[in-house]
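Contributing new complexes? Match this layout with (2R)-3-sulfolactic acid.
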Amino acid sequence: MPSIDVCFSPELLHLYDLKGKAVVAVDILRATSTMVTAFAHGAADIYPVMQLEECRTYAEKGCLTAAERDGVKAEGFDLGNSPFGYMSGNVQGRSIAITTTNGTRAIRLSEAAEEIVVGAFLNLQAVADHLSKLQLDVLVVCAGWKGKFNLEDTLFAGALVERLQDRFASENDATLASLYLYQTAKQDLPGFLRQSSHVRRLENLEINKDVEFCLQHDTFSVLPVWKQDRLI
Ligand code: 3SL
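Output block (do not edit by hand):
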């Protein structure tokens, strides 16, 4: 039986061997939720990059560019990191280059894995179905916040473990902790997360509707998968 494990921050990735594994990269608030939303609204592909300057260069290649730092859209880019910015038909058929504080970093630092998929509550079942077919050992890589643990990515990890627990061995402490946390919180995720650091950060930016949207389960069936230098 394959196994599932959880890495609480990209800073802990050096402790894991990614070779031969499937990574689920997650940044619930909001990068991976936004990427899933972009694909669900017709985006052709997405280039997640780490630096603002690199992201800017993709405009010359005909890409839409998207950038966020500290929760705010960076100046001079077409799009920010709110899922609502990707829903108006504006990304249909387009390539997007995106850089965010933590989410794009979690994806790029996972490149040694056999496969990387992008997960969010919004496409939770699509991720679970894909991993069940793939039968590789799984590592959920939480983007966290600037190297630190966060609740929302851990809750996603727990939700995924719950859906996979019959088919995957999940006996390590990180996985058990994620599962218990999710089972405690799942009746009211927005309420549970009200005191969390990033929800408070986003509240100060007055984007509560983003939080509510990103906590919805199984809204989309898209599954962004890493191929060479981008998500398709
Ligand atoms: O850290 C990130 O990658 C972002 O998703 C943060 S924010 O939700 O845009 O503030």
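Reviewers usually confirm one structural detail per submission. For this one: Residues 27, 29-31, 68, 71, 81, 100-103, 143 surround (2R)-3-sulfolactic acid (CB under 6 Å).
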